[in-house]
Structure of Probable branched-chain-amino-acid aminotransferase:
Amino acid sequence: RIVYVNGEWLPESEAKVSVFDRGFLFADAVYEVTAVIGGKLIDYAGHAARLKRSLGELGIASPVDADQLLDIHRQIVARNNLGEGLIYLQISRGPADRDFTFPKNPAPTIVLFTQPKAVLANPKVETGISVVTLPDQRWARRDIKTVQLLYPSMAKMEAMRQNADDAWLVEDGFITEASSANAHIVTAEGKLITRSLTSAILHGITRASVLDLARGAGVPVEERAFTLEEARQAAEAFITSASSFVMPVTRIDGEPVGNGKPGPVTQRLRASYIENRLAGAI
Ligand code: PMP
């Protein structure tokens, strides 16, 4: 693969980041993952806007402007001949002698690489995924997309140990989100319930697009926290993320959701997300 590091295009074996990089030592870095289909960027504007917000929250100055950022995304697709897959972007505060305080004159590090992946033809779409619930033990600023992903990794490992595909995280009896996706349920009355945007969850770009499409299609949407019990009683459940789009959740803690099959609202939203976002891809 050809990767991008601080203004240079290099084979991955030649790319280097300092051992003193604060992304490495302190997880002092933010990231974005953007899906690519047919060589085009899906929901790019949302990812670029959230990146700016995450950087702003941490006071990291972007090493590139908006035009450069888009140009780098386009070039990395072209240079790697990426038809379908993901673009990973990370910006850290950069290298500095190890100290808890931020450096006075930081030089942020920017890295991008690609991951080829069949995003559309995901076999899990047919069956849905199974999730187990685990306590949400992440830090309290989940709205900032930092690379501090140890707890989500541990949660995912625990889910796999329990023969499930993913974890839904629970705080004070309410579902926050999945290990790396937003969590949603559909009630028997056909109402979509999803957690509102606070610092308890990441403000998913796919979530925002899907909610727009749901409202446009006349699906009632309620943005509020829902309990584990409500999730267990739901007719349908699903997750959203840039890498899974809209993915049905058909088991929670071993019990089927509704009839245990991907639900009609979920399937319609997946189809409409794909159709709409492919048409808007850049
Ligand atoms: N929540 C968390 C914790 C995530 O890590 C992600 C994806 N990285 C999401 C939600 C989904 O966000 P998006 O739709 O922007 O990919």
